[in-house]
Design a protein that fits this description.
The protein is α+β, with helices and mostly antiparallel strands and 178 residues long. It folds into 2 domains: 1-60; 61-176, H-NOX domain. Helix content is 54%, strand content 17%. The protein has 7 helices and 4 strands. A 4-stranded antiparallel beta sheet has the order 1-2-4-3, with helices on one face. The longest helix has 22 residues, at 35-56. The radius of gyration is 18 Å and the shape is globular.
Length: 178
């Protein structure tokens, strides 16, 4: 989301519990990054995701549990649920974050939303966005995400093409048709 942006930074001084500081320092060392990078990543996650999860009604659930729920559904139920959701989470996040509806802001929210399912590659060339998601959740989950995001794109008059859908991967191209 923050790729290719020239953001200014500011120095921040704050007090945190010594035990929390040590745990953050240990985590940064284990990851091979600076404490500053870790704290910056944590704050970006809060600003782009966590601050709205309570308002939207999210609850923590493991991928293993979600996978079991999805796999227990038949294909008709998956289609029905996916169409009902139809990208509502992305739209809710969008309007909790931005006051102006435009395609660039929408794509930022789309990337934030889809990142919660796994590793994401996102690129843009001449207005066409390529979004590849490796989610490790199985074929039914790929189908669920494909239908959900296709419904969302249709509702917003965006062109979404699923370019690859397999057991643990979903690849899409998205562009503004307006």
């Amino acid at each position: 989301m923050f790729k290719n942006c020239n953001h200014q930074t500011v120095n921040l001084s704050c007090r945190i519990d010594k035990i929390v500081y040590q745990q953050l320092l240990d985590d940064a060392t284990k990851k091979g990054i600076s404490l500053n990078s870790l704290v910056s990543c944590i704050t970006k996650h809060y600003v782009t995701w966590k601050r709205h999860t309570d308002e939207i009604g999210f609850v923590p659930i493991s991928k293993t549990m979600l996978k079991k729920f999805i796999n227990a559904l038949d294909d008709e139920d998956i289609i029905k649920i996916a169409k009902e959701l139809g990208g509502t989470i992305v739209i809710q996040l969008y309007f909790l974050t931005y006051d102006k509806m435009n395609f660039e802001n929408f794509m930022k929210m789309f990337e934030i939303d889809i990142m919660r399912f796994g590793s994401v590659y996102h690129s843009e060339v001449d207005g066409k966005h390529t979004v590849n998601l490796n989610h490790c959740m199985g074929e039914k989950f790929s189908n669920f995400l494909a239908i959900t995001h296709q419904t969302m794109a249709d509702n917003l008059s965006l062109k979404l093409t699923v370019t690859k859908k397999e057991k643990n991967m979903l690849c899409m191209e998205i562009e503004n048709t307006k």
